[in-house]
């Protein structure tokens, strides 16, 4: 006999088989079958002893239906047996007898010859006869086992177990590879003398356990799941790795008093998406009113986060603190100014209290959250005891209690004087493992209660008139390890009722087991305390990967205040109206997209748009529908079913013309990629769609037309058209006139503009166009003798040909829609130096003349060449090397063929500087920062500089349309002899940092650097204002002070460089009396800020040292009071030893120690290639 025992975490572990059920030929039998195969299962010798018989149903149930990890309530257990008398006579698909379980019908589905496999396939399915019999939204959660046994010898059997949520769509579930057919018949079963299927007889027993679906989502596949419909709440979309942000935001949102306070921030005059308070208001409003998951893009953009921040998981505690700080700033000066501190901030006292004398040194500080140790503690209460644990200061570690009491035994520790209404507890799940030399996640079991009393952790003099009992409101969970993981939250929106799981965009009800037990961490446990074990680890229990890392408790006496209702009246009116407007606009756009197939865009060129056009062709068709460019074609969005006659009426009305005096010409794409009028539309009865389809090939779904307005009309007001005039019999006659468009190139103004259109016979000569041009331009009847008009045909942007005056238009191959450009200029023969000027052969020309003429076009062909190669380039002053007030950003239209020198001349001419004293920098496409300086080369062109060889948008980070420019005080040639040094000038302690890029001769030293800094920063020199010291920092720690003789060529580019005045008290101090000072946040490894060196004074109490330190740093008032100061050993992972006012730093610190200032990092410095989290 044999059986298969699943010794796994979820006791139904099996594989889903990808094979489809393809062997059914009867159409009525083609049903969807869920196909599953069990894992390769093992059995051990000790498990084969004393096994129950297949007929002992109670014992079998205990064996084959192990406890479920979810521990749902069992509603009913049912056993049903189906006896099969003639297996090999069965149909390929058989259904067993219907039986009832959980008030629903069930039956076994059997494929005796395999469901497209070489094993028999057995499933459990619901027994509803017709789909109409299935209740609406029916589901039933079932754990079941199927047993195939020998009816003559019940010791011989095989079983498989599974659980499933049965629905109308997933009506069956089971095992495709239940048992191999070749082993079933005439082959002794494992360890026995008889086959499993003996005499073609077998028994299939179904053990069906119906369990309660308490949350409505037990074993749910979440296909088409609607969070709002099922729970009344919506989730937040994950942008990439923002699940940690989503869990925190949901927690704050359901702290109703916080949401109300956020709504109270006045933003009606700051409703910009760069205002984080306004975007948070919008997010909360959308969570309150939306029917679908809400995005956080607006909020993260208002934080100033870039794409890389979105894909980096950040520290939730740090994010929470910074968000609170930012919102607290926004609430200053408003009625809600004290709301956040009163809601989230408590007070803690750090003390040293003498045992034998009445002396105590203490300070009381605010806290916004509490960090509790997980390691070494079994539960929350033990962590609190650990937190307030008293340290005995006795023996060699006695406390110096001043001159009066000298050394005394003392107790040192912390105690809470008050807790906030909303208590945020940060569980320290991540700690440094000194043996592995890395941070590790602590997965130890750590329990926390639904309710706890915080009174035991308060000081004796704390106010206990109101209970300090706290109730669990939220559990923020991390699943995974240090390097990869996922965050979600369990929150209780109301005082009474359910907890809900907020997992990004999905919200589901949660049981208290899910909230508590499943987030304690440690080993998986069942209800009876037994451990669930992983399949391949028979001895070691399976460990949970998910555990709580942040807990939110609310004081029970303040529950009604904190979870107060947030009504529509609490939402700012301007916010409501703005979001509703945007929602209506989105809905209109959605409707427009849905109806888009009914409409078509029409772009119409008119005489007016042509006159404003300054480029090639008749218009720029790429202009958008909302373009305000006067040269852009007029855009109309019309129904495809509209008749052309109706369209003419619409356009004629815009042109203030009678409809009969306007006719359309269809624009076509010529083979040379130009778009020109082809022929007029004489029949206006077809629809716009039909006209569009009849036109030649299209680049997009846009009908392009030219609207011609009649210049002559009959006495009745009807148009007289020069060509294609319809006769009374309906026949359209084409004469020999052709339609030609005229453009004027103004040599002096260096402009090209459309003029008008003319009709002229193809038999006439080119020179006969001149009188028509004179009339259109208003130049009179005759040109002066010294003037001449030159004519060119614009064949395509890169092909402009001169027209011969004596040639006929037919000979020049001109046709309808062609463009002729003309220019009026002095006859070239009268200008002797014209050719020399064009070719640059006149040696007497000054450099200034060459500069002025370098980009001037003398005839239309040159100007067309300029247009063809024109590139609009943006120029920005270098952010750190050029004064942006004196030299603001600008744009220039340049020929991409110009050389580096001509580029420098054009920019120098624009900003009023010397071209030799300019340097250009390429722009990093991803960050927008300066990339590399451009090297001057004799063969370089603007095109090759902006688009280096091999350039494409995938392989480079360089922008192809912008430069930074640097205004130099010396020529580029001289610049090559200098070294650029980045140094920060500290003018007010460390509070004011002014960065400078300074050029120092490569053979210079620190003395030269200091003199250059004095000149660049325009500060008094050393003789006038005192000695200047220059020092280096590394990883935000003081590295070394540099001597005056130190060569600048040896400066390390990877260290920070600072310069400051030497304080008077330090001028004659011994070098051995200094201690390096650095800044950190919480952990000494998290350094930030500007380090410096500080003078120690022998015997000075730390209370006096702090006063000097405050003066030395320049930090004043509350900014300095918030800083905790500690001595930090050189060891990389040493703990900070925090100092008290009565300590003497001279005695405490050793030569290898540093002084650490512990405070929040408000900088945005880049570390290890990634930026610290910041909120703009």
From TrEMBL:
One of its GO terms (biological process) is protein deubiquitination. Its EC number is 3.4.19.12. Its main location: nucleus. GO terms for cellular component: cytosol; nucleus. The keyword Membrane does not apply. It catalyses: Thiol-dependent hydrolysis of ester, thioester, amide, peptide and isopeptide bonds formed by the C-terminal Gly of ubiquitin (a 76-residue protein attached to proteins as an intracellular targeting signal). It is an enzyme of class 3 (hydrolase). It comes from Sodiomyces alkalinus (strain CBS 110278 / VKM F-3762 / F11) (Alkaliphilic filamentous fungus). PROSITE patterns: MATH (PS50144), USP_1 (PS00972), USP_2 (PS00973), USP_3 (PS50235). SUPFAM superfamilies: Cysteine proteinases, TRAF domain-like. This is ubiquitinyl hydrolase 1. Keywords: Hydrolase, Nucleus, Protease, Thiol protease, Ubl conjugation pathway. SMART domains: MATH (SM00061). Belongs to the peptidase C19 family. InterPro entries: MATH/TRAF_dom, Papain-like_cys_pep_sf, Peptidase_C19, Peptidase_C19_UCH, TRAF-like, USP, USP7_ICP0-binding_dom, USP_C. Pfam families: MATH_2, UCH, USP7_C2, USP7_ICP0_bdg. Residues 77-208 form the MATH domain. Residues 234-556 form the USP domain. It is found in: Nucleus. GO terms for molecular function: cysteine-type deubiquitinase activity; endopeptidase activity; metal-dependent deubiquitinase activity.
């Amino acid at each position: 006999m044999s059986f298969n025992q699943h010794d796994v975490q979820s006791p139904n572990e099996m594989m889903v088989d990808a094979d489809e059920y393809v062997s059914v030929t009867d159409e009525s039998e083609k049903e969807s079958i869920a196909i599953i195969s069990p894992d390769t299962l093992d059995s051990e010798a000790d498990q084969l002893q004393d096994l129950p018989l297949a007929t002992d149903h109670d014992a079998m149930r205990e064996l084959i239906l192990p406890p479920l990890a979810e521990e749902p309530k069992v509603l009913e257990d049912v056993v049903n047996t189906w006896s099969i008398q003639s297996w090999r006579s069965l149909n390929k698909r058989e259904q067993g007898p219907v039986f009832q379980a959980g008030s629903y019908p069930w039956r076994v589905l059997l494929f005796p010859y395999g469901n497209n496999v070489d094993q028999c396939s057995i499933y459990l399915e619901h027994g509803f006869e017709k789909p109409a019999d299935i209740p609406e939204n029916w589901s039933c959660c079932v754990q079941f086992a199927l047993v195939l046994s020998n009816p003559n010898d019940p010791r011989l059997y095989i079983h498989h177990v599974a659980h499933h949520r049965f629905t109308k769509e997933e009506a069956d579930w089971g095992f495709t590879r239940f048992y191999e057919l070749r082993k079933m018949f005439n082959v002794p079963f494992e360890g026995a003398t008889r086959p499993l299927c003996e005499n073609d007889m077998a028994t299939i027993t179904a053990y069906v356990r119906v369990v309660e679906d308490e949350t409505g989502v037990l074993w749910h596949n979440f296909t088409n799941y609607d969070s709002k419909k099922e729970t009344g709440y919506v989730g937040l979309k994950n942008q990439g790795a923002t699940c940690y942000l989503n869990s925190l935001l949901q927690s704050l949102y359901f702290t109703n008093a916080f949401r109300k306070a956020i709504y109270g921030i006045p933003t009606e005059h700051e409703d910009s998406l760069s205002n984080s308070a306004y975007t948070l208001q919008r997010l909360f409003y959308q969570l309150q009113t939306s029917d679908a998951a809400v995005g956080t893009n607006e909020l993260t953009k208002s934080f100033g986060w870039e794409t890389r921040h979105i894909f980096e998981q950040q520290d939730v505690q740090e994010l929470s603190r910074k968000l609170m700080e930012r919102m607290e700033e926004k609430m200053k000066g408003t009625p809600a100014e004290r709301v956040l501190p009163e809601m989230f901030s408590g007070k803690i006292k750090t003390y040293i209290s003498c045992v034998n004398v009445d002396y105590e040194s203490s300070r009381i500080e605010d806290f916004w959250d509490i960090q509790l140790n997980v390691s070494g503690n079994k539960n929350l209460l033990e962590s609190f005891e650990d937190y307030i644990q008293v340290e005995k200061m006795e023996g060699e570690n006695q406390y110096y209690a001043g001159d009066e009491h000298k050394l005394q035994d003392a107790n040192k520790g912390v105690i809470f004087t008050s807790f906030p209404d909303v208590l945020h507890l940060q569980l320290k799940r991540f700690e440094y493992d000194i043996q592995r030399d890395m941070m590790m996640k602590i997965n130890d079991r750590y329990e926390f209660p639904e309710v706890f009393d915080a009174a035991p952790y308060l000081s004796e003099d704390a106010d206990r008139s109101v209970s300090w009992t706290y109730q669990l409101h939220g559990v923020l969970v991390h699943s995974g390890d240090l390097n990869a993981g996922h965050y979600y939250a369990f929150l209780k929106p109301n005082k009474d009722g359910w907890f809900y799981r907020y997992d990004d965009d999905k919200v589901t009800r949660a049981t208290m087991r899910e909230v508590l037990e499943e987030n304690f961490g440690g080993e998986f446990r069942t209800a009876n305390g037994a451990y669930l074990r992983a399949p391949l680890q028979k001895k070691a229990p399976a460990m949970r990967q998910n555990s709580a890392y942040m807990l939110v408790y609310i004081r029970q006496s303040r529950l009604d205040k904190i979870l107060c209702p947030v009504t529509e009246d609490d939402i700012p009116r301007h916010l409501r109206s703005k979001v509703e407007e945007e929602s209506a606009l989105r809905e209109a756009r959605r409707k427009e997209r849905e109806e888009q197939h009914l409409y078509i865009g029409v772009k119409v060129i008119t005489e007016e748009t042509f006159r404003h056009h300054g480029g090639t062709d008749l218009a720029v068709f790429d202009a958008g529908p909302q373009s305000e460019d006067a040269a852009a074609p007029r855009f109309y969005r019309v129904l495809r079913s509209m008749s052309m006659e109706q369209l003419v009426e619409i356009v004629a009305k815009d042109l203030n013309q009678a409809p009969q005096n306007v006719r359309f010409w269809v624009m076509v794409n010529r083979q040379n990629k130009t778009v020109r009028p082809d022929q007029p539309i004489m029949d206006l009865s077809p629809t716009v769609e039909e006209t569009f389809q009849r036109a030649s090939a299209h680049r997009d779904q846009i009908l392009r037309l030219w609207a011609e307005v009649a210049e002559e009309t009959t006495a009745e007001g009807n148009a007289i058209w020069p060509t294609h005039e319809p006769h009374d019999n309906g026949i359209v006659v084409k004469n020999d006139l052709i339609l030609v468009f005229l453009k004027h190139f103004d040599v002096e103004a260096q402009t090209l503009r459309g003029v008008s259109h003319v009709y002229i016979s193809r038999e006439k000569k080119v020179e006969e166009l001149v009188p028509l041009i004179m009339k259109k331009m208003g130049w009179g009847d005759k040109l002066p003798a010294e003037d001449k008009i030159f004519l060119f045909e614009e064949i395509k942007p890169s092909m402009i040909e001169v027209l011969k005056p004596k040639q006929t238009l037919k000979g020049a191959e001109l046709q309808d829609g062609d463009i002729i450009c003309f220019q009026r200029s002095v006859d070239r023969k009268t200008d002797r130096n014209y050719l020399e000027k064009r070719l640059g052969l006149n040696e007497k020309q000054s450099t200034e003349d060459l500069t002025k003429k370098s980009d001037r076009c003398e005839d239309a062909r040159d100007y067309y060449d300029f247009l063809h190669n024109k590139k609009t380039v943006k120029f920005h002053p270098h952010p750190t090397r050029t004064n942006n007030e004196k030299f603001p950003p600008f744009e220039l239209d340049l020929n991409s063929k110009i050389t580096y020198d001509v580029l420098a001349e054009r920019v120098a001419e624009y900003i009023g500087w010397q071209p030799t004293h300019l340097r250009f920098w390429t722009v990093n496409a991803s960050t927008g920062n300066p990339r590399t300086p451009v090297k001057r080369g004799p063969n370089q062109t603007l095109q090759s500089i902006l688009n280096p060889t091999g350039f494409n948008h995938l392989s480079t980070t360089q922008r192809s349309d912008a430069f930074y420019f640097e205004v130099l005080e010396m020529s580029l040639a001289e610049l090559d002899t200098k070294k650029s040094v980045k140094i920060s000038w500290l003018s007010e302690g460390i509070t004011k940092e002014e960065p400078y890029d300074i050029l120092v001769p490569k053979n210079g030293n620190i003395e030269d650097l200091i003199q250059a800094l004095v000149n660049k920063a325009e500060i008094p020199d050393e003789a006038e204002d005192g000695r200047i010291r220059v020092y280096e920092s590394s990883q935000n720690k003081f590295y070394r002070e540099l001597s005056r003789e130190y060569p600048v060529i040896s400066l390390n580019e990877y260290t920070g460089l600072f310069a400051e005045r030497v304080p008077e008290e330090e001028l004659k101090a011994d070098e051995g009396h200094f201690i390096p000072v650095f800044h950190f946040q919480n952990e000494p490894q998290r350094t930030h800020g500007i380090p410096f060196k500080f003078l120690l004074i022998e015997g000075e109490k730390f209370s006096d040292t702090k006063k000097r330190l405050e003066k030395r740093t320049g930090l004043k008032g509350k900014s300095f009071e918030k800083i905790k100061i500690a001595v930090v050993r050189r060891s990389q992972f040493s703990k900070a030893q925090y100092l008290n006012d009565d300590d003497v730093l001279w005695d405490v610190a050793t030569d290898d120690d540093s002084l650490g200032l512990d405070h929040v990092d408000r900088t945005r410095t880049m570390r290890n290639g990634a930026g610290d989290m910041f909120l703009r």
